[in-house]
Design brief:
Elements: H1 4-45, H2 47-53, H3 60-64, H4 67-80, H5 96-118, H6 121-125, H7 145-152, H8 154-161, H9 165-178, H10 201-225
Helix pairs in contact: 7-8
Domain Lipoxygenase: 60-263
Keywords: Dioxygenase, Metal-binding, Oxidoreductase
Protein name: Linoleate 9S-lipoxygenase-4
């Protein structure tokens, strides 16, 4: 027969076990999120695989004797960056590896980097309260009449402080236009002319591999964004990070990586 003391003890154990289970679940979810972040880092490292898929080997000697390529690099360094042309870190463009690194960097800046910082402007900033572009007055000093007004009606005073209606409309118009995809855009992994942009079989096959890799990456990103256990991707706001999905249609889509910057 269980006495009253044992009954009370058992009653205390149950809530403790319940809380422990809840904590364990949270810890497990956090660990999974950490692993997911690490996996995302690994994904960034796998960009090397993306570059490998698009490689078409070129002999160093052939590269060094290519007048068009060498003239392009000379103009890029000495004219495009004339103020930095004497810096020691410039590549000499004498090897295939240097060409791959330079090309991959330029493509990344004009495509992926631009997509990440540009096409989320309206979705993230469309509600001007999230990110006002201007503060029209200082915060009132404590004890001043303005501070008393702020304390009585903070929302009204806040709206007087941030961007005005006219400026807000101008700002929203600009960022909405910038966040839209044009109807004649080509996304990363696409070319004008389909499979007939070159008669060279090597680059054609490499470009196809590159495009297929992008499609696979997009599928993986969609799967992870739909996984409710990945708290770093599927948060309470249910607004997954889609800016680096490679594909997109025309318009305001909050996704898509165009081949280049076009404004």
């Amino acid at each position: 027969m269980i006495d009253r003391t044992e009954t009370m003890a058992m009653g205390q154990v149950q809530p403790i076990n319940k809380r422990k289970n809840e904590v364990d679940k949270k810890v497990e979810a956090n660990l999974k999120a950490i692993e997911e972040i690490k996996a995302s880092t690994d994904m960034a490292l796998r960009n090397t695989e993306m570059v490998d898929s698009a490689k078409v080997p070129v002999e160093d000697e052939e590269l060094q004797k290519d007048p068009e390529l060498q003239a392009w690099w000379k103009e890029l360094v000495e004219v495009g960056h004339g103020d930095l042309k004497d810096k020691p870190w410039w590549q000499k463009m004498q090897t295939w590896e240097e060409l791959v690194e330079a090309s991959a960097t330029l493509i990344w800046i004009a495509s992926t980097l631009h997509a990440a910082v540009n096409f989320g402007q309206y979705p993230y900033r469309g509600l001007i309260l999230n990110r006002p572009i201007i503060c029209r007055r200082f915060m009132p000093e404590k004890g001043s009449p303005e501070y008393d007004v702020l304390a009585k009606n903070p929302e009204k005073e806040f709206l007087k402080t941030i961007t005005g209606k006219k400026e807000t409309l101008i700002d929203l118009t600009v960022i909405e236009i910038l966040s839209r995809h044009a109807s004649d855009e080509f996304n990363l992994g696409q070319r004008d002319g389909g499979d007939y942009w070159t008669s060279d079989a090597g680059p054609l096959e490499a470009f196809k591999r590159f495009g297929k890799n992008l499609e696979e990456i997009e599928k993986k990103l969609i799967e992870k964004n739909n996984d409710e256990t990945l708290r770093n991707r599927y948060g309470p706001a249910k607004m997954p990070y889609t800016l680096l999905y490679p594909s997109s249609e025309e318009g305001l889509t909050f996704r898509g990586i165009p081949n280049s910057i076009s404004i």
